[in-house]
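We emphasize that the prediction below concerns an isolated chain of 107 residues; any contacts that depend on oligomerization or on bound cofactors are therefore not represented. The input was used exactly as deposited, without trimming of termini.
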Amino acid sequence: MTFIVTENCIKCKYTDCVEVCPVDCFHEGPNFLVIDPDECIDCTLCEPECPAEAIFSEHDLPEDQKHFLALNAELAKEWPVITEKIDAPADADDWKGVKDKLKYLER
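Result of the prediction step, given as a token string:
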């Protein structure tokens, strides 16, 4: 099983989660983070650290977010690993909870 970063991370990109990951499975894109499903060990440490509540276990993934499982796997192959917390975008709080943000995903 793996954990998945979902839509609410787009344009928020808080990185509190990366600091607690014991296997460095987070990858960073321009305005989104993903989890490499091949590296994730299902430790559950990242989920409670996410201020945007954008991380779910594969089994608890909301129906409307299921496509993020494949998206995490795809982008983890393209984006670099991130292991340290960085500052969130200045407008991250404005984007937290906004719906239908997939169109804003930068690859």
